[in-house]
Amino acid sequence: MSGAYVIHALRSAVVPRGGAFAGFRVDDLGAAVVTALLAQAGIAPDQVDEVICANALGEGGNPARRIALAAGLPDQVAGLTTDRQCAGGLDALLLARALVMSGMAQVVLAGGVESHSRRPERRMPGAEAPYLQAPFTPWPERDPEMSVAAAALAERLGISRDRQDAWAVESHRKARQADLSAESVPVAGITQDPFARDLTPAIASRAKVLSGSITAANTAVAADGAAFVLVVSAQIAALFPAACRLSGVTLGGVPWEPGTAPIAAIRAALGDRRPEVAEVMEAYAVQAIACVDGAGLDPATVNIGGGALARGHPIGASGAVLAVRLFHQMGQAQLGVAAIAAAGGIGTALVLER
């Protein structure tokens, strides 16, 4: 064996903004998951070399360090917080892989945490307007609001509102039937994603229009949550029968069309191989559809337990949630992929192999 491996993965539930997690700091959410993850895996805190945590909306202050301290890790675990917006949670795992493969670490906790409920309303002192969206390109005229970009993608690819709504309805149906007991950590007594509901085509047809064919029904809601995985060396992974070898790719695409960026990353990460299970981000139904179509994935293998449309979108944690879901979906599968798009035209694809 060689390389870097995922040996265990856990997450909190994903709860819409203003819900049961509204009073929790990112430290609280992250530490709850990290503590349970180490205990279930049988990894002692003093075995951990680093914590890498994605966070996009917080107030700063290196949340990874705060989570490490709150979880009782040794003081020498410095903690590294990253921000690649939606892709950050998957990229944290790829950074952990690089540390392990370089020999700089044997055990890395990697993932993401986000509290949409507690995001700062104004990031600049004296700002007159709430902080809604960061600039993702240096050209304001080519830096559309995300729902506008999604609507333009739907129009360019001819993906109808009916098809987007049908994807959303199916996401909720699958999520309501999913058993999350193996992957979720109780926080505030919650283990199931509470947003999943009986969405019907009729209800979706009445949803508020955000832009073009993009509506509140086929768009993921803002949410709070945390997810982490244990990335370890081959020597340690040899002790864990369920270990999966980790690889992946992050690539930039057209800056003002983020929805299609994961297609090239999926192709680069998989080559000619066909995954048996896939987790594809559903920030917008159109973005998931475009990626599945463009990368040639089998829709029957994608998001078999529902996606972000039925959970919510805790931006910095969303990629890590995909990774946790993928690890627990592997079962007898030999090959799986998780993919996500990020603002600014960035796509990340992460591969797990038995």
Shape: globular
Secondary-structure class: alpha+beta
Mean pLDDT, as a whole number? 95
Percent helix among the residues? 25-40%
> What pattern of helices and strands is seen along the backbone?
EEHEHEHEHHHEEEHEHEHHEE
Total beta strand runs: 12
Radius of gyration: 19 Å
CATH class: Alpha Beta
Tally of helical runs? 10
Distance between the termini: 11 Å
Supply the CATH architecture.
3-Layer(aba) Sandwich
Counted up, domains total: 1
**Largest sheet: number of strands, sense, barrel closure:** 10 strands, mixed
Unreliable stretches (pLDDT < 50, length at least 5) are: none
Topology diagram in text:
Blueprint: E1 4-11, E2 15-16, H1 26-41, E3 50-54, H2 63-70, E4 80-82, H3 88-102, E5 107-115, H4 146-157, H5 161-177, H6 201-205, E6 209-211, E7 214-215, E8 223-233, H7 234-237, E9 244-252, H8 261-270, E10 277-280, H9 285-295, H10 315-329, E11 335-342, E12 346-353
Parallel strand pairs: 3-4, 3-5, 10-11
Antiparallel strand pairs: 1-8, 1-9, 2-8, 5-8, 6-7, 9-12, 11-12
Helix pairs in contact: 1-2, 3-10, 8-9
